[in-house]
Design goal:
The chain has 124 residues and is α+β, with helices and mostly antiparallel strands. The protein has 3 helices and 8 strands. It has a single domain, classed as Alpha-Beta Plaits (2-Layer Sandwich).
């Protein structure tokens, strides 16, 4: 997949303890993003934060360290991101979903094992 130029960044802020059918919600979002063909998704765990409840979650307090803030970030074309948002609206009961404009400068993955195993063609 090629992705360059104008794109959208979709970020979902939620709690680490948020669940979807007994599984971490962030994991469900990543797997659905992959199934939807998005360019990628990354999960970032925060060390401190608060949301609409105004309750601060932090690694410094042992009793609250089980529900740290989590951000799931995806970048793709506007069409693919907008098509994925309804799935998030179904999944995210508490949290924040934001979209912002970005410019993709470089998006390059690792070569697949099949293409890495083939010798490079000679150049003249």
């Amino acid at each position: 997949m090629r992705l360059t130029g104008k794109a959208l960044r979709l970020t979902v802020y939620l709690g680490e303890a948020d669940r979807w059918h007994h599984h971490p919600l962030y994991s469900e979002i990543v797997h659905r993003a992959q199934a939807a063909g998005l360019a990628g998704a990354s999960v970032f765990r925060g060390i401190e934060g608060f949301g609409a409840s105004t309750l601060v979650h932090t690694t410094r307090l042992l009793s609250l360290s089980e529900d740290l803030p989590v951000a799931v970030v995806m970048v793709d074309t506007e069409e693919r991101i907008r098509a994925f948002v309804p799935q998030l609206e179904e999944l995210v009961g508490e949290g924040l979903i934001v979209v912002d404009n970005v410019e993709v400068i470089r998006y390059v993955g690792r070569p697949s094992e099949a293409s890495a195993a083939q010798p490079a063609e000679p150049t003249a």
